[in-house]
């Protein structure tokens, strides 16, 4: 049973517009969430994270929002650029990441069109 | 070069053969992980290691063996390769606030 769900396998947006990638989770004990980006033929790279004590974390063009009551988080990319085209994975952890094991979603493939 | 490196990048092997995928990190991170990535399954944890000589099973350990005699190395062995083990394999270690750092992956094809 998938504890971290990314229900949209793919997303296409125009350059300069906002990209919103969504992630839902079922385990209310998760307290740390991360987003990773993956290009073809490369390993995933860390993008941004958020602790469950926060509802928003921002890093440049990337913002992650956490809605604990809905068990939902989203990644906003503004403005979207063609170089953002990649697969984005949502991951969750227990014990603020100290247990060192992440539960991963299946990923959303983002295409940013020039 | 500092980082986490996997070798080989590509491997074709025959069913029944033993094959070892190598993973080396230069940071002395305690935790290391092996994942496989398959279409429709995302990243699935095979084995992980909390330190040298400490390993534990992940979600899909069957058919795989790991060892960690040195902190920097975490090889993954397929004892008798099967076609279902055709996949892309990623090694990762933990360090810093960003969580995992991944290697570039090994694409394994079992024919």
Structure description:
The complex is a heterodimer of chains A (114) and B (111). In chain A, the strands form two sheets. In chain A, strands 2, 4, 5, 9, 10 and 11 form a six-stranded mixed sheet that branches. In chain A, strands 1-3-8-7-6 form a five-stranded antiparallel sheet, with no helix packed on it. The mean pLDDT of chain A is 92. Chain A has no helices and eleven strands. In chain A, 0% of the residues lie in helices and 54% in strands. Chain A is globular. Chain A is an all-beta fold and 114 residues long. Chain B is globular and about 40 Å long. Chain B is mainly β and 111 residues long. Chain B is built from no helices and eleven strands. Helix content of chain B is 0%, strand content 52%. The mean pLDDT of chain B is 92. In chain B, strand 9 and strand 10 form a beta hairpin. In chain B, strands 2, 4, 5, 6, 9, 10 and 11 form a seven-stranded mixed sheet that branches. A four-stranded antiparallel sheet of chain B has the order 1-3-8-7, with no helix packed on it. The chains are: A mainly beta (114), B mainly beta (111). At the A-B interface, strand 5 and strand 9 of A face strand 5, strand 9 and strand 10 of B.
Task: Give a concise summary.
The complex is a heterodimer of chains A (114) and B (111). With 114 residues, chain A is mostly beta strands.
Q: Notable features of this structure?
A:
heterodimer, A: 114 residues, mainly beta, five-stranded antiparallel β-sheet, 11 strands, globular, B: 111 residues, seven-stranded mixed β-sheet
Q: What structural class is derived from the secondary structure elements of chain A?
A: mainly beta
Report the portion of residues of chain B in β strands. Answer: over 45%
How many strands appear in the DSSP assignment of chain A?
A: 11
Q: What order do the SSEs of chain A take from the amino end to the carboxyl end, as H and E? A: EEEEEEEEEEE
Structural class by sheet pairing and helices of chain B: mainly beta
Beta-strand percentage of chain A? over 45%
Question: What is the CA-atom radius of gyration of chain A, in angstroms?
Answer: 13 Å
Number of helices of chain B: 0
Distance between the termini of chain A: 37 Å
Largest interface in this structure: A-B, 20 and 22 residues
Give average pLDDT of chain B, whole number.
Answer: 92
Which regions of chain B are unreliable across 5 or more consecutive residues at pLDDT < 50? Answer: none
Shape annotation of chain A: globular
The proportion of residues forming helix of chain B, as a percent range, comes to under 10%
The overall strand count of chain B is 11
* Biggest sheet architecture of chain B: 7 strands, mixed
From the alpha carbons, calculate the radius of gyration of chain B and give it in angstroms: 13 Å
Determine the oligomeric state from the structure.
heterodimer
**What's the average pLDDT of chain A?**
92
Q: Quick one: biggest sheet of chain A?
A: 6 strands, mixed
Distance between the termini of chain B: 34 Å
């Amino acid at each position: 049973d998938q504890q971290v769900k990314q229900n949209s396998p793919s997303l296409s947006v125009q350059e300069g517009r906002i990209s919103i990638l969504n992630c839902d989770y079922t385990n209310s004990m998760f307290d740390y969430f991360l987003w990773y980006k993956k290009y073809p033929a490369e390993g995933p790279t860390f993008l941004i994270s958020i602790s469950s004590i926060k509802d928003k974390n921002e890093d440049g063009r990337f913002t992650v929002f956490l809605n604990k009551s809905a068990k939902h988080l989203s990644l906003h990319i503004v403005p979207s650029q063609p170089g953002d085209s990649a697969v984005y994975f949502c991951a969750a952890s227990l014990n603020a990441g100290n247990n060192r094991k992440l539960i991963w979603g299946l990923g959303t493939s983002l295409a940013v069109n020039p | 070069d500092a980082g986490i490196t996997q070798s080989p990048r590509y491997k074709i092997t025959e069913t029944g053969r033993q094959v070892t995928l190598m993973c080396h990190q230069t940071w002395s991170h305690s935790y290391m992980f092996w994942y496989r990535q398959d279409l429709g399954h995302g990243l699935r944890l095979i084995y992980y290691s909390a330190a040298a000589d400490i390993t534990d099973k992940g979600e899909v350990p069957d058919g795989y063996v790991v060892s960690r005699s040195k902190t920097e190395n975490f090889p993954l062995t397929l004892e008798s390769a099967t076609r279902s083990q055709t996949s892309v394999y990623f090694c990762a270690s933990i360090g810093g606030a960003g969580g995992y750092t991944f290697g570039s992956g090994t694409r394994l094809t079992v024919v």
